[in-house]
Structures are given as C-alpha cells and as structure tokens.
Amino acid sequence: MTDCLFCKIVAKEIPADIVHETDRTLAFRDINPQAPTHVLVIPKQHHANAFELAQADDGLADDLLKAAHAVAVQDGVAETGYRVVLNTGPGAGQTVFHVHAHLLGGRPLLWPPG
Ligand code: AMP
Ligand code: ZN
Fold first, then answer.
1. Domain ranges in the chain?
2. How confident is the model over 91-102, as a mean pLDDT?
3. DSSP state of 74
4. Ligand nearest 1 Cα, by number?
5. Residue 31 Cβ contacting ligand 1 at under 6 Å
6. How far away, in angstroms, is 64 Cα from ligand 1 center?
7. How many CB atoms within 10 Å of residue 69?
8. What is the pLDDT of residue 114?
9. CATH for the stretch 5-105
C-alpha cells in the first residue's frame, strides 16, 4: 500500500527504531511511548486489522505474537509481565490501519485499560 505509514516503514522509506525483524514481521519502538517498553509489532504484509490478518493468512497472527514475546524477552519484561494490545477500529483508538500489536511493559499496567 503506497499511502500506508507502516508499509513505508517496512519498505525503509521512513526511519524507525527497529528492534526485531523476521521474514514476515517487523517491530519498532512507538514514537509516542506509553511505557518504558512500547514497541509496535507488525506483519510486513499489509492487513488493516487483527481480524483481516487472521482471516487472510493462517499462521501470521501466531508469528506476530511470537515476535512480540521475543521483543519482551529482549527488553527484559517477559518475566515481570507485558501486555499486547490490538486496537481494532476507530472506537477502540486505532489510528493507523495497518495492523499493529502494541507491546507494553516495564511499569505496572492498570486493568481495565482506559
Ligand atoms: P493505534 O492508535 O493503535 O492505531 O496506534 C498507532 C501508534 O502508532 C501510536 O501509538 C503512535 O504513537 C504510533 N506511531 C505513529 N507514527 C509512528 C512512527 N512513524 N513511528 C513509530 N510509531 C508511530
Ligand atoms: Zn500498510
């Protein structure tokens, strides 16, 4: 997708602080972090949201979760605990319509979230 911000990050047309990469996923630090660890994990392939991702490509959602865990281990938050958030739709706060898992950790996380 030519006008998608995260596709441009995948294509390395826009810089990002990349912390993890596989053949199918990319993870980079959120530009406006809400926790000491706040990383966005995305599929390289464009899908608008989590449901479309799961529907379109068996196994890619698994890859996303495995990549999120790998980043949590890398950042030292896997033991203490972390949260993976997939905002889906504008009412849930989704602003970039290329599916991304927010990986949050490194501070106490309130439940329920706002
Ligand atoms: P959401 O609101 O769930 O769609 O999340 C979009 C996230 O993308 C927000 O947390 C933004 O801070 C983050 N973001 C927007 N532009 C960039 C960028 N160029 N690099 C890294 N993160 C970004
Ligand atoms: Zn995209």
1. 5-105
2. 97
3. H
4. 2
5. yes
6. 17
7. 15
8. 82
9. 3.30.428.10
